[in-house]
Amino acid sequence: MVSVVVAGLLSGCASTHLIAPQIEAADRPALGAVAEIELGEAAVATGQRRSLPGLSLANELSWGDGVLRKRFTVAPGRLAARQSDARHIYYFSDRMTARDPLFGTAPYASGGLCRAKDGSGPVRGFITPGQCVLAWNATPEVRDIRIEEADEGARRRELIYHGRAEGRLRFLYRETSGDSASQTQTQAQTQTIDYDLSQSAVIGFRGARLEVLEADNTRLRYRLLAPFDAED
To answer: Domain range for residue 204?
Structure first.
């Protein structure tokens, strides 16, 4: 009985396509802006940011009874829109479980919430992309969000504040790059730099220029005058 019910839900699936993430520059702070950071945070950072549309779910949802058929449950959390078909967008949950009457409860990574592309109609559920058919036990309480993801293949540069001692400021320059194929992040270069504030309140490294306004061993307040030089 269980296999028949689930098999029926899986039949007649529409063809789906992956949703490409939005990729944009992630440089901070803004040029000319006054910023304040804590010890160990980046005063200047440049790189890329990847994001996907998503839904924030506020309440727990379930479908099925776990006795005669599987019971699928989605816990509150953030669901990223990863696939779509001609009519629907599919938001995948990383907090979904399936309870089988014979095998118990296990994580379920292939389902989540779905809704019409134009936002009309109810928010339903799916256990496989391409079939937006599950009616939950409660109305999903959702709001639209954007979900940022690490861009593993991007080159990143940071000038990190390491504190003040005897009128000198210390920074750590860190440059990292990733291998998008292996999805690993490797450290490419680090360098420690000291600056004497008695000479100038403006410090610089690799094109970046900061005007130091206040500094101690817990925080740095500054204005960004110029970003890093353009990457090769």
So the answer is: 31-47+151-226
